Amino acid sequence: MVQLTSGICNRLSEATPSEIDEIGGGYTVQLVSIKKVTALSAAAPTIDRYRIIMSDGVHFIQAMLATQLNDLVSNEEIVKNSVVIIDKLTCNVLGDKRLIIVLDLHVVSREEEKIGNPTAAPSLAQPPAAAAESRPAASAPAYQASHSAANEPVLAQPRPATSNRPGRSIYPIEGLNPYQNNWTIKARVTQKSEVRTWSNPRGDGKLFNVTLMDESGEIRGTGFNAVVDALYDMFEEGKVYYISKARVNLAKKKFSHIQNEYELSLERNTEVEECLEPSSLPMVKYNFVPLSQLEELQRDSVCDVICIVKEVGDLEEVVSKANRRLIKRDLIIVDKSQYAVKLTLWGRQAETFAADDLAVIAFKSVKVGDFGGKSLSVISSTLMTISPDIEEAHLLRGWYDGIGGEKTFQSYSNVSSGGGSSAAFNRNEMRSILDVKQSQIGMDKVDFFSTRATIMHVKSENIAYPACPTQGCNKKVTEVNERWRCEKCDKTYERPEYRYILSMAVADWSGQAWLQGFNDAGLVVFDKSADEIMRMKEQNESEFNAYVAQAIGKTYNFSCRAKQDTYNDQTRVRYGIAKVSPLDYQEEAKHLRDLLMTSPWGQGA
Asked: What digits encode the pLDDT tens for the residues 507-526?
């Protein structure tokens, strides 16, 4: 039988909140009850909370599990009568109640018989008269849990929490709720947004956000207008602060991805004081998801990933649907699950990105998209850490430098997304042209596929069009009085910038298909800009035709998008080129080697 730590429940029930913090961890208890707590109101976000009863074999005491431990319950790693070692806990005073919160534990034995016949710890089982003598008369009566059985504990009466700040109690973020007033948290700023402004018929305004973290969890704080002027410069990422007199509200999940049902509204009287003494608060808490599991996540969900940056794209300017000019940079990232995914940086993060080749980067809170199968994108609350000093980063670095660099990485390019384009060629899911046509992919929804084919013919007529030279516009311009006008930009230019618009027949062993491509595809196939090609056509059309003909007979890897199209009352499927790349014989040889080694023949050799 497992030996429980004798007397620990009695010690915890009699200790003050500050003494509980000093008790630390390393003691063994049995969980004689684990029950989900009902939400405070129907309007509250549905974040599960679990109440546990810990026993040392003689006495028991009630506590709450921190939400970061919820997976232990949902995955049934801990069940009724599991024996665990408590590694860390804290105590919170909620109104007139004291609450112990378990921050970390590890399992000794998942299933055990109930040990002993524990009763409520003495300080919790006082009769009302004795309890009245030991606390101020104005205190509320002890609280009895509504679901308790005969031996279910009654929560202890609150005692003042103490800290190294005279007259103030330090509350864990996990314990904050709208029904508290006099609280102070000690938290590290893990993320600080830029100041954002708005203007509408009701007036102008500005705001900023900070993400605050302690050992129990995270919470977001938001300040508006005058609070921005007062507090924005006080917060610095990575530093620890004492914060009090902010309002606790229900979190607006539309604007926040923090795993907390509440958020802080920073106000004019909010007090912020930097903590100058050394602090053991963690820098960042990650919950990394392997890239191979992105398919299980819904669109617009948020996750943490740690990866090797395999490719870094150029800085680009794009125009949004709202006609805003945005700066972006695409990365191709890989991890130990042997998947490759496109991750897009925006704004300042895109402009200032300066990582070494094949750097290890940890991303906290990136948004999952279905552009080209599955993709990732940074958002305002994303935290990017290059070469973080954490165990997962060191393991990933060692894996990639040892064997990962020679691996072939899969992509999500063949996963249906309902829109967008694929960013990578997937050798493991390559399809023949005959298979693509017989499968009728693209008939009901947009589909993606990878194929390898040889160019048989390129339509040289209308191979390019005159485009607006403004970066990110690319709209067709018209010639007016020997100048070129863009209706979208409402500007005229001396000359246009030509961009490719390709239509070419390709074939493999099974059949032939027509593919349509744009400027990126043309640059790969012809290795010249469309401007150079059009100048060649104007100066010497024979030379132009001969140059275009050089593309015939060359084989490429194509990532394509299949989409149904109706033209002149005829419905057909059009195949668009999302990406084209010449054959990399070293990569192809590695892929064939991996196929051989994973085949029954290779494994038996």
From this structure: 999 999 999 999 989 999 99
Of 34-43, 117-126, 261-270, which gets the smallest average pLDDT?
A: 34-43
Percent of the chain whose predicted confidence (pLDDT) is above 90: 30
> CA-to-CA distance for 391 and 557, rounded, in angstroms?
37
Partner residues linked to 270 by β-bridges = none
- Residue whose structure tokens are 């996750």: 303
Residue type at 372? G
Burial of 1 (0-12, 13-18, 19+ CB in 10 A): exposed
Model confidence pTM above 0.90: no
Which helix (H) or strand (E) is 400 found in, with range? helix 391-402
Q: Provide the β-strand partners of residue 454.
A: 507, 555
Distance CA 129, CA 113 (A): 36
- Would you state the structure tokens that stand for residue 474, as one six-digit string? 């690319």
Residues 6+ apart with CB under 8 A from 251: 45, 220, 258, 260, 261, 262, 263
Q: Which of 186, 185, 392, 203 is nearest to 308 (CA)?
A: 392
Segment 184-222, tens digit of pLDDT: 999 999 888 889 888 888 888 999 999 998 888 889 999
What's the Cα-to-Cα distance from 531 to each of 263, 500, 544, rounded to whole Å? Answer: 54, 9, 12
Instruction: Give the tokens for residue 307.
Output: 């990866």
Over residues 365-412, the pLDDT tens digits come to 899 987 656 889 998 778 888 998 889 999 999 999 988 888 888 877
- In whole angstroms, give the CA distance from residue 42 to residue 38: 10
Question: Cα separation of 193 and 514, whole Å?
Answer: 47
Number of H helices, E strands in the chain: 13, 31
Contact between residue 260 and residue 218 where contact means Cβ atoms under 8 Å apart = yes
Structure tokens at 488: 């979208």
113 burial type by CB count under 10 A (0-12 exposed, 13-18 middle, 19+ buried): exposed
Q: CA nearest 528: which of 543, 506, 513?
A: 543
* E-state strands within 400-490: 447-458, 464-467, 478-480, 483-486
- What would the pLDDT profile of 310-353 be if each residue is shown by its tens digit? 989 888 888 766 667 788 998 999 999 989 899 999 888 888 89
DSSP state for residue 174 in the 8-state scheme: G
